[in-house]
Amino acid sequence: MGKLRILVKGIVQYKDMYLAVERWYDDRIFEPYQWEFIDGEMDFGETPEKAVERIVAEKIGIPVQVDKPLYTWGFTAGEICTAGIAFLCDAQTDEVVLSEELHDSKWVPKSDISNVITNKAVVKDIEKAGLTNSFDLDDFGKVDLFIEPLD
After folding, report:
1. What is the pLDDT of residue 34?
2. pTM for this entry
3. How far is CA 67 from CA 6, 74, 91, in A?
4. What are the CA-CA distances from residue 69 to residues 106, 147, 151 (Å)?
């Protein structure tokens, strides 16, 4: 029997900047360190909003206010089906304290996000969320979730 896991992603915004974090994946791949947004697994009994607040606080030491959901994603690997929800989160400070699993962080203006985050799947997601020059977050207002079928 397969297993379902739920991930939440925090796209942390402070003023007009977004936080990108660098994480190590695997020394056997071309780019073992990759830039991305903060994500993690939801715990049983948590709401998605509480989960993203907890994960962001654990990984970068900043309390955030969840603004709105931006998009969803999903994939299947072996017998594990993963579904994810990305949230826009507002930070009250830009003073980051990285957890041990993260290598580096940087605050990036919207116009540079696609230059910093190069993972094709993440770039596709941030384009859907309006975080590249061709979109504007305000275009979404109360955003409908972008739902993609799981492979």
Report:
1. 84
2. 0.80
3. 19, 22, 10
4. 22, 12, 22
